[in-house]
Amino acid sequence: MESKYLSIVMVCVVGLLSACEEESIGMQPLDSTPPGIVTDIKVENIPGGAILTYKLPEDEDLLYVKAVYSRKDDGVMSESRASLYTDTLKVEGFGDTKQRQVKIIAVDRSRNESFGVDVSVTPLEPPVTTIGRTVDLLADFGGVHAYWENPTRTEISVVILKQDDNDEYIPIETFYSTVVNGDVASRGMDTIPSNFAVYVQDHWENQSEIKYFTLTPLYETNFDRLKFKAVLLPGDQPSTYGWIMEHMWDGKVGDQGFSSPGGTGVWPHSVTIDLGVTGQISRIRLYQRTGFIFAEGNPRKFEVYGCQTLDQTGDWDSWTKLMDCTSVKPSGLPFGQVTDEDVYVAKNGEDFICSPTNPKVRYIRLNILQTWAGGDNFQISELEVYGDNR
Predict the structure, then answer these.
(1) Which has the closest alpha carbon to 172: 186, 184, 185, 153?
(2) Whole-angstrom Cα distance, residue 347 to residue 293?
(3) What is the dihedral of CA 15, 17, 20, 26, to 10 degrees?
(4) Band of the pLDDT at 183, cuts 50, 70, 90?
(5) Could you read off the pLDDT of 14-37 as tens digits, one per residue?
(6) pLDDT, mean of residues 190-212
(7) How far is CA 26 from CA 21, 109, 216, 285, in A?
């Protein structure tokens, strides 16, 4: 019995030794010999950076190639790396079009570095400058509205500033965005002339030139949701599964609200709301059902109609169209994929702007044309109405 036990132990020991020997196969021995240099380097200047292509050294233990450079004149060095499986490396984050020196270095598995090869790059105008040139600031209901163009979907922040009593411009709101056509508002301001400023900043803290404006915000307040009432006109859709219309103005945002019934064979779907007072609508803020961000029955395209006197027949001729609304997914990613920016917009509400030339209304009617899932029913978690209801 003891002999059998010893045999088993010997087999295990031999097996472990074999495993160790096999594991060492293919490992590169440590050395102090640096790899050869990168050669035949070609430079393609791009907005805010450059793309470098090159010929790799033939060292068997090559690990990666790195570029060392300074993005600004402060002497702070940055690195970009590319693996041994590619012959292309990108340097980026430059905030101007000055000529810069980039040192290209090959690194092996022993972390030995080759002699650096210097190349010059001259970045094209950086996106932050191009975007900053398009940014504009206009007076809006309750505040100011910023607009800009970002065709390359660069990660940027748009900073709105306001002059305080000490004549200093203080940031009042910062918006992070990658959308092609930027459109944000900062609200909650008095209707008095004030001095504002705006600029664009990128991921590397490069800034565009600051633009200055003197603007007078328009009067705006929220319509009192406690005065809202559900109205069911002929042609409108009732609620289903207990997701009643009153949930749209109960002050709760989440995975519940109003839902129209599916499978009725009727589309589009409409609902009508009595705002309780007559007023000029500046915008409607719609909150998505948060369990299905930019999906399920969350509205994607819809119309908003208004009237002062209700026609109980539901005849659409008695209504004035106030808005054509399209929900925009900031990331532009395919259905089912979302980013943090998408989640933020869905949970904090999307504003749909109403022209100040539209008539005053007491009743609004939403006509849902398309949902994010393309189904035959829709859901809204919460709905807020803003404007002048004095």
Answers:
(1) 186
(2) 8
(3) -100
(4) confident
(5) 343 344 443 444 455 578 899 999
(6) 96
(7) 11, 12, 72, 61
Contact 350, 185 (CB under 8 A): no
CB 271 within 8 A of CB 258: yes
> CA-CA distances (angstroms) from residue 29 to 26, 32, 37, 57, 109?
9, 10, 20, 19, 9
Q: Decide if 81 contacts 111 (C-beta within 8 A).
A: no
Residue 9: pLDDT band by 50, 70, 90 thresholds?
very low
Q: What does the alpha-carbon distance between residue 171 and residue 61 come to, in Å, rounded to a whole number?
A: 51
Cβ atoms within 10 Å, residue 253: 18
b/e code 17-47 from CB counts within 10 Å (16+ = b): eeeeeeeeeeeeeeeeebbebbeebebebbb
Residue 200 burial (CB < 10 Å; 0-12/13-18/19+)?
buried
DSSP reduced 3-state for 152: coil
**Residue 106: pLDDT band by 50, 70, 90 thresholds?**
very high
Burial of 110 (0-12, 13-18, 19+ CB in 10 A): middle
For 288-344, list the strands marked E by DSSP: 299-307, 320-326
What is the reported pTM? Answer: 0.69
Element (H, E) at 100: strand 100-108
Decide if 369 contacts 326 (C-beta within 8 A).
Answer: no
Structure tokens belonging to residue 379: 């859901």
Strands 77-83 and 88-92: unpaired
Q: Is 260 helix (H, G, I), strand (E, B) or coil?
A: coil
* Calpha distance 234→350 (Å, rounded): 29
